[in-house]
Amino acid sequence: MTYLRVFVGACILLAAIGAVVSVPLGSSPVFAAAEKSELLDINTATTEQLKALPGIGEAYTEKIIKGRPYQRKDELVQKKILPRSTYEQIKYKIVAKQK
Question: What is the average per-residue pLDDT within 4-24?
Answer without folding.
Answer: 67
